[in-house]
Amino acid sequence: MMELFSYGPLGWGDEILAGLWVTMRLALTTLPVGLLLGFAVAALSLSQIPALRAIGVGYTTLMRGLPEILTLFIVYNGLGLGLNRMMAWIAPDAGPIDFPPFAAGVIALALVFGAFAAEVLRGAFQAVPEGQILAGRAIGMSARKIFWRIKLPLLWRYALPGMGNLWLNLLKDTALVSVIALDDLMRATKVAVGVTKQPFTFYLVACLIYWLMCLLSELVLAQLERRANRGLRRA
Amino acid sequence: MAFFDTLAANLPKLLDGTVTTLALTGLGAAIAAAASPGLALLRANGPLPAQLALRAYISFVRGTPLLAQLFLVFYGSGQFRAELTALGLWGFFRDPFNCAVLVFAVNSCAYQTEILRGGIQAVAVGEIEAARAVGMSRPTILRRVVFPHAYRIAWPALGNEIILLMKASALASIVTVFDLMGRTRQIFSRSFEFSVYFQAAVLYLIITACFVYLWRFAERRMSRHMAAPGRA
């Protein structure tokens, strides 16, 4: 049993850890990209201009209504087709090439994350009390200073619980990229299953690893929330 | 436009897949809905061992990818083929549709239990005291007071959960179920017709939109007595 998960040529420990590393890199690369997108879409949804608002709301509605796996296939195959069409135009002799799956994974996951994050951020922005902003203006803060010193810290506090859930979802959604030939934790497990013929053992270990990552994330998030709320009086 | 040209050709298969998607979601959600009231009661005020077991179950389901759960059951059952055959269950686990329904039911049940627990705990204490004061028995209180309230409170969240399950049911296509996503991938792999993905996207959005409408309709009916007087 133990030798199955040992390191080296006999065990699968190193392969699974390498897969875990890809999973973590994928999630950690997607997070900032998705957050930036989320901020941009939230800004659109809160815009004074109806056309921009429609784009923001339309984007979040569409992306949140589609299965993540469909988005992933649209991005992976769509970008692949587009890339090959472009390559055929630039260098007709070169054979077909695959769009890098890691990039496709980051783009697809960020598109989904961004849509959900936009809703969380929009809600948080709208929850910032008017009085706080008026107070900032009253003591002569510029709009930029109000954003950095008042809106953003409050936004962090209001958005953190929602963002925490999105992070957990993102961590779990990374498993989907295993179907577009990216060697993440899920796919490393699948390879190990193919050789050892012990599917239950290996998928259970994969599940336990994901579970552990989620539990650790929850601990960190609880800590962050406590820190974000340190200035609040308990009722 | 390529979209409409191919839509007519693809539609029979896509609709066939849509029926499977609805069956997967409906069966999974219904089984979960049948089990969740009892589990939610246990989770809210059952004995400590039961509460701990339920918390572990819910935490595991929420902390692992649905795809991993699906693989654990569909591929993992192969490791116990001899035992399952002896029990007469192998035929069940060999069929990916059954495995998908089982996993979706177990998965959704965890979320529905947690949502319903929130609803049960949000029922006003005064309501229950009033019921006790007029001499209702515990089962009657649950049936007439606690659950009607709990479901009304939990209704929107339960609807969200079913929509999430419907979207997640697309994962069944990875274990070879020909649901809407499975049909879409099949058509794409044969024709490289990229527009089929957009056709599938439209169908998924239509399913969601219909469901949201039906759910809101049911919600309005459930809260008829709370509507402002003079309005339907």
TrEMBL record, chain A:
Pfam families: BPD_transp_1 (PF00528). It is a multi-pass membrane protein. InterPro entries: AA_ABC_transptr_permease_3TM, ABC_transp_permease_HisMQ, MetI-like. Residues 20-221 form the ABC transmembrane type-1 domain. It is found in: Cell inner membrane; Cell membrane. The chain crosses the membrane at residues 20-44, 69-90, 102-125, 146-168, 200-224. It comes from the Bacteria. The keyword Oxidoreductase does not apply. Keywords: Cell inner membrane, Cell membrane, Membrane, Transmembrane, Transmembrane helix, Transport. Belongs to the binding-protein-dependent transport system permease family. HisMQ subfamily. This is ABC transporter permease. It comes from Sedimentimonas flavescens.
